[in-house]
Amino acid sequence: HVCTIAVGLVGDIARAVEAKIQPYCTDIMSALMQSLQNQSLHRSVKPPVLSCFGDIAMAIGAAFEPYLQVSLMMLLQASQTRAPDDDEELIEYVNSLREGILEAYTGIIQGLKDGNRVDVLVPYVEAIMTFLEMLSVDETRDYEVLGKACGLVGDFASTMGVRVKDQMSKPFVAKLLREGQESGDETIVDTCTWANGVVAQILQQP
Question: Which of 121, 151, 180, 187 is surrounded by the most beta carbons within 10 Å?
Answer without folding.
Answer: 180
